[in-house]
Fold GL10188.
Amino acid sequence: MDSESWACSSVEKDLDRVVTKLEQLRDNASADVGDIAMLMSDLVNALGNAEQMVTTLNSSTQVNANAPSVDDPMGDGVSMQVETEPTAPQRPTDRHMEVIRGAILKCNERVQKLSTEHRDLHGSISKIGKAIDRNFSADFTSTMRVDVLQDEENLMLLNKAIAKHYCRQGMDTVARTLIKECKMTEDQAQDVFDSEREFADIYSIWMKIQKRELTEALKWTKRYSPQLMERHSLIEFRLHRMRFMQLVSYGVESQNEAVVYARTNFKKFALRYEHEIANLMASFIYLPAGLENSPYKHFLGQEMWTELSFIFLKDACQLLGISKNSALSVVVNAGCTALPALLNIKQVMQSRQVLGMWNGCDELPIEIDLQPEFRFHSIFACPILRQQTSEDNPPKKLTCGHVISNDALHKLSNGHILKCPYCPVEQNAEEAVRIYF
């Protein structure tokens, strides 16, 4: 286990202990609160019984004082006003007082227990922060080149990267403000907007798809339809499919419009998507009840629109040869991925007193394996010619499923006949399909 995994494991153990304590506290607190509620209920009942007894005693005393005596000969004919001392209030019985004192005492004990356990939990939570500080370095300055941004050219490159990032997001006003404050030249500022204009248009369409507006996206795919068909892209058909289902979802009054739209736009996809188009046309059966009560209800969910927008963004960027991520976001994300390895090697070099190896060259002292999305060149090497593929020599997938480079394909083919170098399948060399990694 490397140091990073060990550090994560150590912090995870402390976190598991806190979570276990929290769950125990929750269970104990629920039981204690239930007990307190029962004790309070008993206390209320005891106080109610005591009050009822006092009221009964006072009422009976007053009745006995006002009732005429049977032996009094003047009871029926004479009304006498007798002044008596007010009845002294009756105290609850000893049994009631015992119940009340017991309930209050137990409530105090339960509340004190909850307070103590809660205080102990705070101590355990604070230990997590200490464990993180102990196992992970918070000082990243050791991996920085503090002299890099002292160069005016490098600083301007950073400002251009930030400005381009804002342009890609459609935040032109923020980009212009940054350009003005960093005193960027007009040529550099024009390069910022020119280089990101294509992606800004794509980004604008991407945002509209997420808002369920397909007009601009359909116009874009119509303009680049031949290129998309050549690359076997799914986006054009999926946009038309979503627009068709959008018309169907409007109800019976839009049925004719949906039929006309399907006849107009599904013709070119009839061979490739024949079965799926037939399923789409079956959605008219559910118009009276509404699509929300049909097997087609998933077309109404936002998930489908979000997925469609990202497919459009990916295919459009690939077609135009631009990155779907800005240079700034790629640098930041790649740096965060590489940072733990850099901290580890820095610590090892310090312990062995070989910091001189970390020189000022534009390369890292170790090779860092980044994630696939940070690789911008072909990672396929032809198994026949032992060379990496490129735009001029792209990889080709044979009908049997094996992949070789385009140069190897031409060298191995005899006219139009090609025998796969890995299996005995003979095939037409022209049926090989280019693969995009």
Residues 72-88 have pLDDT under 50 and may be disordered.
